[in-house]
Each structure stands twice: as C-alpha cells, then as structure tokens.
Amino acid sequence: MGSRKPARKKVVEQCAARVMETVPLVMRFIRADMRVRGSYEEISVPQFRSLAFLDKNPGASLSELADHLGVTRATASANTERLVQRNFVDRCDHPEERRRVVLKLTPAGKEHLEATRAQTRLYIGDLLTSLSDEEITQVEAGLSLLKQVFEQSADST
C-alpha cells in the first residue's frame, strides 16, 4: 500500500504538467482565432478579457479589473477608457467612496461579448467534429472536472 502513494503522486504531477501545457495552448489558439476571424477587429484581447470579467463581476472596481488582467491600475484605466468610448462599458463613481470607480457592461458591450464568444464557439465546435462521440464525452467530462477543481480553489482563496 505504501507504493501506491508515490505512484499516485507521480500520476497527479503528470496530469498537472499536462494541464499547464494544454491550457495555454488552447488559450493561444482561441486568441489567435479571434484575431484572424475578426472578432477582435473592434477590441484588443485585454479589452475582451475586461468585458468577460465585467460580465461575471458587474460593479467591479478598476483595481479588481487590474488585478484580473495582471496590469497596473493606469493600464486598466486606459483600457477601460477605450471601452467606455465605444459604449461597451459604463464607468461611474462609487456612491459612497469618492475615489472608487464602478464598472459595468452596457447592453452594447454584452452584445459584443456574446457575439465574439459565439463566433469562436462555432469554430471550436467545427474542430471538435473530428472527434468521436466518446471522445467528445471524455473531453467534456475532463473539462467539467477541471472547472470544478479550479472553482473550488478560487472559492477557498
């Protein structure tokens, strides 16, 4: 029974390495596809990420957005300003904290985000048609497990 733990640890580490190898590859593919297909002709990747973040976190602050993007507040502010100018984001002062900015998607921002997501989903779906039904089920199950693990991890931090 003692030999089972090191074997499991090795399998878990190999799985972690595969996740670290695969997720960036998938993200690069998605970003490249969105650029090539024109989804990003109106906005940059960080701006798209901003829209997606604000979709899930309406009323987020500029600091929260900067943390999500991994950029300075100044960079997030400039990024947000371009989205405000395009009428994709509303920016207003927090009613109780004068120095805090509250951000939320406009209907136009939500529409643009959904259209961009739908276009890329269609292309990814086309790529996945080369897989068998069983393989699709395996991919879906694996992704569901990964999502669950990382959501639990995010909730505990």
Write a structural description.
- With 157 residues, the chain is mostly helical.
- It has 6 helices and 3 strands; from the N terminus they run H-H-E-H-H-E-E-H-H.
- A hairpin with a 7-residue loop joins strand 2 and strand 3 (101-105).
- The chain is globular and about 60 Å long.
- The model has no long low-confidence stretch (mean pLDDT 88).
Along the chain, the helix and strand elements come as: HHEHHEEHH
Widest sheet: strand order? 1-3-2
Indicate the overall shape. globular
Structural class estimated from helices and strands: mainly alpha
Question: What characterizes the major β-sheet?
Answer: 3 strands, antiparallel
**What is the count of β-strands?**
3
Q: Please estimate the helix content.
A: over 70%
Low-confidence stretches: none
Which percent range describes the beta-strand content? 5-15%
Alpha-carbon distance between the termini? 33 Å
Rg = 19 Å
Distinct helical segment count? 6
Mean pLDDT: 88
